[in-house]
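Subgroup meeting minutes
Present: P.N., E.W., G.H.
Scribe: E.W.

1. P.N. recapped why we're keeping a running log of single-chain structure predictions: easier to compare across weeks, and new members can see raw inputs and outputs side by side.
2. G.H. added today's entry (68 aa).
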Amino acid sequence: MTEEEANTIRQELSQLRQEHRDLDTALDALVATGRADHLTIQRLKKRKLAIRDRMSHLEDRLVPDIIA
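Output recorded in log:
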């Protein structure tokens, strides 16, 4: 992997982390106010999980494979 590719992955990871935090904040606010329906909360949680999966995939790409 080139340094440019690694930088691109780090940048995407940064954006995904921010989006994940934003969703977490939005979920907390919706639950606290009690105004969100169950379906909206479920969709936000599903999106948050998809972001977490993508972040995990990108982090795995940054770590070099070490064969023991």
